[in-house]
Amino acid sequence: MQPTRGRAGFTLIELVIVIVVLGILATQAIPTYLSLVDDAKKASAKANLGALRSSVTIFYAYKATPMGGESATWPSITQLTDNVTVLNGQMPDNPYDTDATKNNVVTGTARGVVSGTAGGWGYIPTSGVLWINTSTAGVVENGW
Asked: Taking a C-beta distance cutoff of 8 angstroms, is the pair 98, 106 a contact?
């Protein structure tokens, strides 16, 4: 049997062109991917903050009813974190939580002011105000 003659592979120039084209595509795709990851974290944080605020507001409204004792009060940090009184399960995840205790709630002084070691949720028990307790730029006070 006679070996086939002609082109058996790619030239070096063709391979270099393919690598350059792939490099150009990667420079466009990687920043887009990183932006999507950041957008997903923000969306998750907003949704979880909304769920937490809703739970606190429902607790406050319930306390104002005759069954709740007719004394509208915001939940204490203990009631908020015991996973039974206010929430029917665990605290929602804060994707910007950076401290050792996952999704902890810290007593805050003002909305948007980072308290403690920048983790979990900030909460003022006397007014029911909640926020994401993080020092991440662009997240602390976005009007959420």
From this structure: no
Residues facing residue 123 across a β-bridge: 107, 130
Angle (CA) 86-64-106 rounded to 5° is 35
In a domain, 111, yes or no: yes
Q: Contact at 8 Å (CB) between 114 and 129?
A: no
37 within some domain? yes
pTM: 0.73
Q: What is the pLDDT of residues 108-118, one digit of tens each?
A: 877 767 776 66
132 forms bridges with which residues in the sheet?
A: 121
* Count of domains for the chain: 1
Confidence label for 12 from pLDDT (cuts 50, 70 and 90): very high
- Domain annotation covers residue 83: yes
- Amino acid identity for residue 122 in this structure: G
Assigned token pair, 6:
């002609």
Task: Give the model's confidence band at 3: pLDDT under 50 very low, under 70 low, under 90 confident, else very high.
Answer: low
pLDDT tens for 83-102 read: 888 888 888 888 888 777 78
Spatial contact of 73 and 124, defined as CB atoms under 8 Å apart: no
